[in-house]
Design a protein that fits this description.
Keywords: Membrane, Transmembrane, Transmembrane helix. It holds the Pfam family HGSNAT_cat. This is DUF1624 domain-containing protein. InterPro entries: HGSNAT_cat. By secondary structure, this protein is mostly helical. It has two domains: about 100 residues, no CATH class; about 220 residues, no CATH class. It has a two-stranded antiparallel sheet. A hairpin with a 2-residue loop joins strand 1 and strand 2. The two termini are about 20 Å apart. The relative contact order is 0.17. The mean pLDDT is about 95.
Length: about 350
């Protein structure tokens, strides 16, 4: 039986629960600031969620592939899982509740969360299978430094490059040239093509955490804490030259988010795996079907927004208006309560699936 690190499962499940929460407020008009993304530079707690998941993907790769050989059978499994993730993401981007059930081709968004998870998983797994930690460290450094040089120093059509949201931003420019109208915004996509490169580094940093967790060293939680603090400091220092930015997935953003991930994981590891405290079991159950629950939540939300129950009012809007909007509650609190209700539903579903031993591997 494979050794289980309880904290890794809890961290993964907690991250998925937070992803669902920040994606399903009662209304986007009223959302507490910590539950919104930063406008551009800087970050909020919400901006930590997706990089946390990519980080734990890397950590999980260590447990799943440490005894695997880099052969055709292993590559086939990795490729199939990658294609499944990308396919599910494209399905969500194309699906519509009305006949013929899929959007016009020109309206489909090609990049997306699941697509990025698939691509990052593919490259991180291949790299882990073929290289030792020293080479992986070199690749990570090369990605982060190379991305900074590309974004900040290589001229774009004769103009100096910028980190701002502008036409002479390399990430925005490449996305527009490759994807055209198939993007989240007219001028950029937060899961765009060029910014996927440093997101691979987020997963590679998670691999180092996985290597620490499977090692025989003592006081692993202290090492994780030290690594996390070191990454935070380095990330904030780099922020002076390459601003922390989720939309660009800047190199400083990679380090800061991986730093926080190590710190939080160190705490959970200490409480659960070291001290044996029964903590966060519901998130452990959620982590066992993480991708399935995320996909299902996105799919159902899409349906709720599409089904019209009254003129100009979707099923989502009707539920929110008639149940959660109360005169004695602020708009932000009403909106948050709706989101918490959605999360609670999927946590309950995760519990039922776990008890019935239903584990859907994507």
């Amino acid at each position: 039986m494979k050794e289980r690190i309880i904290s890794v499962d809890i961290f993964r499940g907690l991250t998925i629960a937070l992803m669902i929460l920040v994606n399903t407020p009662g209304t986007w008009e009223y959302v507490y600031p910590p539950l919104r993304h930063a406008d551009w530079h800087g970050y909020t707690p919400t901006d930590l969620v997706f990089p946390f998941f990519l980080f734990i993907v890397g950590t999980s790769i260590v447990f799943a592939y440490r005894n695997k050989e880099p052969n055709s059978a292993t590559y086939k499994k990795i490729s199939i899982r990658t294609l499944k993730l990308i396919g599910l993401g494209l399905f969500l981007g194309a699906f519509t509740i009305s006949f013929p059930f899929f959007k016009d081709f020109s309206e489909i968004r090609f990049p997306g969360v699941l697509q990025r998870i698939g691509v990052v998983f593919f490259f991180a797994a291949i790299i882990f299978l073929n290289f030792n930690w020293k080479v992986i460290l070199g690749i990570t450094i090369a990605i982060l430094a190379g991305y900074w040089i590309w974004m900040g120093f290589i001229p774009l059509q004769g103009d100096a490059p910028t980190f701002d949201r502008a036409p002479n931003n390399w990430a925005n420019y490449i996305d527009l040239q490759v994807f055209g109208t198939h993007m989240y915004k007219d001028d950029y996509d937060p899961e765009g093509l060029l910014s996927t490169l440093p997101s691979i580094a987020s997963s590679l940093l998670g691999i180092f955490t996985g290597l620490i967790l499977i090692s025989k060293r003592a006081k692993k939680e202290l090492l994780l804490l030290a690594v996390g603090i070191g990454m935070l400091l380095l990330g904030y220092l780099w922020d002076l030259a390459f601003p922390i930015n989720k939309a660009l997935w800047s190199s400083s953003f990679v380090l800061v988010t991986a730093g926080w991930a190590n710190i939080f994981l160190a705490l959970i590891y200490y409480l659960t795996d070291v001290k044996g405290i029964q903590f966060g079991s519901i998130f452990r159950y959620t982590g066992a079907n993480a991708i399935t629950l995320y996909f299902l939540s996105s799919f159902v939300t899409k349906i709720f927004y599409s089904v019209q129950v009254e003129e100009g009012l979707s099923l989502h809007g009707w539920i929110y208006k008639n149940i959660y909007v109360q005169s004695f509650l602020s708009g932000e609190l009403s909106s948050l309560l709706y989101g918490l209700s959605v999360v609670s539903f999927y946590l309950l579903l995760a519990l039922l699936m776990y008890r019935r031993k239903i584990f859907i591997k994507v």
